[in-house]
């Protein structure tokens, strides 16, 4: 599973509990995209989550 190169956000694990209180293991995947990013003036492909893209922490190439 990919992780964000900026904030290191990845998959989250936990237990999903239904209304009848049956419990199942669950994995929540974060919204991570592979985008071209300007790094020191050069374009490079990186895995970045959409919250980092939206907040302007990275600049797209």
UniProtKB/TrEMBL annotation:
SUPFAM superfamilies in alphabetical order: L28p-like
InterPro entries reported in the protein's UniProt record: Bacterial_rp_bL28, Ribosomal_bL28, Ribosomal_bL28/bL31-like_sf, Ribosomal_bL28_bact-type, Ribosomal_bL28_sf
GO molecular function: structural constituent of ribosome
Pfam families: Ribosomal_L28
UniProt entry keywords in alphabetical sequence: Ribonucleoprotein, Ribosomal protein
GO biological process terms held by the UniProt record: translation
Keyword Nucleus: no
One GO cellular component term: ribosome
Domain of life: Bacteria
NAD as UniProt keyword: no
Family: Belongs to the bacterial ribosomal protein bL28 family.
PANTHER family reported in the protein's UniProt record: 50S RIBOSOMAL PROTEIN L28 (PTHR39080), LARGE RIBOSOMAL SUBUNIT PROTEIN BL28A (PTHR39080:SF1)
Protein name (database record): Large ribosomal subunit protein bL28
Source organism of the structure: Catenibacillus scindens
Gene: rpmB
């Amino acid at each position: 599973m990919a992780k964000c190169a900026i904030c290191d956000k990845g998959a989250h694990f936990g237990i999903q509990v239904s209304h009848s209180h049956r419990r199942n293991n669950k994995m929540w995947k974060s919204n991570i995209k592979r985008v071209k990013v300007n790094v020191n003036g050069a374009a490079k492909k990186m895995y970045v989550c959409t919250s980092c893209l939206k907040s302007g922490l990275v600049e797209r190439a």
